[in-house]
Amino acid sequence: MKLSIPEREIMSPGHLACQGCGAALAMRYVLKSLGKRVIYSVPACCWSVIDGPFPYSSIGVPLFHTAFETAAAVASGIKAGLEIQNDEETRVVAWAGDGGTFDIGLQALSGAAERNDDFIYVCYDNEAYMNTGIQRSSATPWGAWTTTTPVKHFKKERKKNIVEILAAHRIPYIATASIAYPEDLIKKVEKIKTIKGTKFLHIISPCPPGWKSPPELSVKLAKLAVQSKIFPIFEIENGIKYKINIHVKKPVSVKEYLKPQGRFKHLTDQDIEHIQQDADAYYEWLLKQEELSNE
Amino acid sequence: MRSVIMGNHALSYGAKLSRAQVIAAYPITPQTEVVELLSQLCANGDMKAKFIKVESEHSAMAASMGASATGARAFTATSSQGLALMHEVLHWAAGARLPIVMGNINRAFGPPWSIWTEQNDSIAQRDTGWLQIYASSNQEVLDSIIQSYKVAEKISLPIMVILDAFVLSHTYEVVDIPEQSIVDKYLPPLEMEYKLDWKNPHAFGGLTKPDWYYELRYQIEEAQEQAKKLIVDTGKEFKEMFGREYGLVEEYKMDDAEIVLISSSTIASTLHVVIDELREQGKKVGLLRIRVFRPFPSEELRKILKGRKKVAVIDRNISFGHEGAFFTETKAALFNEKDHPPIFGFIAGLGGRDVTPDVLKDIFNIVETTEWPEKDIYWIGVKL
């Protein structure tokens, strides 16, 4: 029987992730697909800690820890260094959180994407600066509490659409993924392995301490995010060809997704309606993009 | 082959002859010709290197780090605002013990905008762990790049080769461009002991608690100390193969000098002419050029300055609220010596103001006619 999730484990137990960490699962799945011939560039983010303190490391592949805004530029350098030494095969991954991607690392990411440098950029998105203690990032959704968007002044700005920014660079492949849909995630990494140029993978990664949600609900929340259309699962080829990979036929309400999360508990019904409309509208827009792509 | 080239191209040819494998750079006046020539050399196949045309200096250094960490020889060049933007990553490159070599063209910071020479950009990087070499001719620029790779790769620390904006960067001088085959003998291919290698996976730079961080910093200091002898030794080896020698400092007419003028970069080259003139007038004066600022050659300075009557340091930089950096370091090196000579500190030539032989003669006159420094710092030629 051929397994849809590779059996091999590259990552070791004993890492320092919190219970129910979505980012730890994301790493585990991505490595299962990538295998050992890979080098990681990791900027300041939860994973700078999760991997383990010196002299320990849990991911089982070479990892270069680097400064917050440099994940993409370091990855470009690693790839060039390997290629000039006649190693075309080793894959390079920039592995960053949402702060290092949406905010401080955006310039380096844009530069690398414009050059179409040949590596995989993975953003594990837990929707705030979780490692420093839950401060808002531009990936924090409208309505969320964080330590810098206190309940009385919860975040009033929408989440930045990083995928559309990357699409505007016309890189060969962009995809969203969820740790609740590992088969879809693995399929995407397998596809990425066949593509040259800059690949961007955006993985929604629930964070129990930051989302104020029970650790055992992380996978369920990552599923509800998809089923409520908050985080649609799709891919974009060459910046213009859209394909929704998980069609939401019978959507659940956003309320079901928001409710188990303490970070949203202050929201009124009206606020929740606002989020619902926003999610519906984006999903509609994506359907149209998919339709246009098929014409 | 003897050619007439500008300082910027001396950097480019230095990188080419050193067989740099990855170049990541961003343009800034007055450094642009460095990357323009390197782009051409890479594009037409004269250099077997990858050129990453990054979107900022911050990424230039970050990409250089990535390349260097795989064991490739990395080169970049910048200036002024660009170097300041790199600041964070300069610490990272040194902390990661990566033997990157970079050219920096000394240029003043804005505001107000200035594109002319001043050392504040590189002086502001003195605590990053990078070695700093200040060159005083285009020949020395080219030779220093080659020598720097040899030193950097032995001690696993990055090196900055520094030259004055326009006075060197855009001035054409006769430069002997050595044969590639001889450079290859001097500088073998890079073999890094620790690098990113999928067959031997390790994490580099992971969270290190106070129980080991301190030792890692001590090792950087040890490497800086080790560099002093290495620079002298590789400089002698360089002389055997290329006929030109470079050490930590350069002495000129110092044998019987009673008054010693200390400076760096092109102010020091102008001082050669001034000292010749003053010698003709019977003045016992000599030049001590500080070539290597990090590691700082304290021991050499103590040895050379012992028993001299007076010392003057001319700085083309200013640590606001204090004085020039070479002055501070020189005084500090001599402080614990018994009976050390008086040391005068001068600021000159900021923002590219010409430091002419007449300016330098004025400085000499002050030193000659003043028994002991009357003020902490002398600003020369201020119009206010």
Written description of the protein model:
The complex is a heterodimer of chains A (295) and B (384). Chain A is of the alpha/beta class and 295 residues long. Chain A contains eleven helices and eight strands. The N and C termini of chain A lie far apart (37 Å). The mean pLDDT of chain A is 97. Chain B has two domains: 2-242, Thiamin diphosphate (ThDP)-binding fold, Pyr/PP domains (Rossmann fold, 3-Layer(aba) Sandwich), CATH 3.40.50.970; 249-379, Rossmann fold (3-Layer(aba) Sandwich), CATH 3.40.50. Chain B has twelve helices and 16 strands. In chain B, helix 1 (7-17) packs parallel to helix 2, helix 3 packs parallel to helix 4 and helix 6 (138-155) packs across helix 8 (210-242). The mean pLDDT of chain B is 98. Classes of the chains: A alpha/beta (295), B alpha/beta (384). Chains A and B meet through strand 1, strand 2, helix 3 and helix 5 of A and strand 3, helix 3, helix 4 and strand 9 of B. Strand 2 (63-65) of chain A pairs parallel with strand 9 (203-204) of chain B, so a sheet runs across the interface.
In short:
Chain A is built from eleven helices and eight strands.
What's the gyration radius of chain B in Å?
Answer: 21 Å
- Biggest β-sheet: strands ordered side by side in the sheet of chain A: 2-1-3-4-6-5-7-8
The total count of strands of chain A amounts to 8
Low-confidence stretches of chain A: none
Topology, element by element:
The complex is a heterodimer of chains A (295) and B (384).
Chain A: H1 22-34, E1 38-42, H2 46-50, E2 63-65, H3 71-84, E3 91-97, H4 98-103, H5 106-115, E4 119-125, H6 162-167, E5 173-178, H7 182-192, E6 198-204, H8 208-211, H9 218-227, E7 234-237, E8 241-244, H10 254-258, H11 269-294
Helix pairs in contact in A: 1-7, 3-5
Chain B: E1 2-6, H1 7-17, E2 22-25, H2 32-43, E3 50-53, H3 57-69, E4 74-79, H4 80-95, E5 101-106, H5 120-123, E6 131-134, H6 138-155, E7 159-164, E8 172-176, H7 180-186, E9 203-204, H8 210-242, E10 249-252, E11 259-263, H9 265-280, E12 285-290, E13 292-294, H10 298-305, E14 310-315, H11 325-334, E15 343-347, H12 357-369, E16 378-379
Parallel strand pairs in B: 2-3, 2-4, 4-5, 5-7, 6-7, 11-12, 11-14, 14-15, 15-16
Antiparallel strand pairs in B: 1-8, 6-13, 10-12
Helix pairs in contact in B: 1-2, 1-6, 3-4, 6-8, 9-12, 10-11
